[in-house]
């Protein structure tokens, strides 16, 4: 029995997966209710991505760099655009002394107009510093899973480039990260089907969220229950 696949019309954006990994309520406010609030952090992030996508593709020795590559996974039901995918040339296999010996297994993909095979290495650009939660790693892993499905190749690692401190952070695409990403993709489709906005839960990370004035996690999290409200009202009228 083959693996079930999503139709093209049901594919969801990889960026939504990153929002979901950060906070289910943030995801729902943006993708279900259409709320969005630009702040300095989101504005700087948009400018950074625009600069990356505007740059031309290029070659640097054993690396071919492609920008703005469209991605999709029918298995996970995801689609998006990769900031940068570096295709790195695989080392040439050793010569076979014995012609009857089995040929070595060669990984990578072939590129038009380029000899040999190449391993994709996705790079996602982020403003600011590395986060404590794994939402960026999930987004990056989802890009790699899309590439693996599209190109029928295995991708062992990728990288996140942060505006501060202006360097890359390598991200091994471990089994646990892959499972978490696949689980969140399934959760994403479940929430789209349910179309329910989760209640707010205030956490420290809320302070960096551009939707803080719309979400109101402090006020709504500690909202008094209806029972408490009625009891207070009855007490007031009996005085």
Describe the model:
With 239 residues, the protein is α/β, with parallel strands linked by helices. It has one domain (8-92, 104-199): Lambda Exonuclease, Chain A, CATH 3.90.320.10. 38% of the residues lie in helices and 21% in strands. The chain has 8 helices and 7 strands. Strands 1, 2, 3, 4, 5, 6 and 7 form a 7-stranded mixed sheet that branches. Strand 3 and strand 4 (78-89) form a beta hairpin. It is globular. The termini are far apart. Residues 39-49 and 96-106 have low confidence and may be disordered.
Task: Indicate the topology.
Elements: E1 12-13, H1 14-22, H2 24-31, H3 40-54, E2 58-60, E3 63-73, E4 78-89, E5 118-126, H4 135-151, E6 157-162, E7 167-172, H5 175-194, H6 212-215, H7 217-221, H8 226-237
Parallel strand pairs: 1-4, 5-6
Antiparallel strand pairs: 2-3, 3-4, 4-5, 6-7
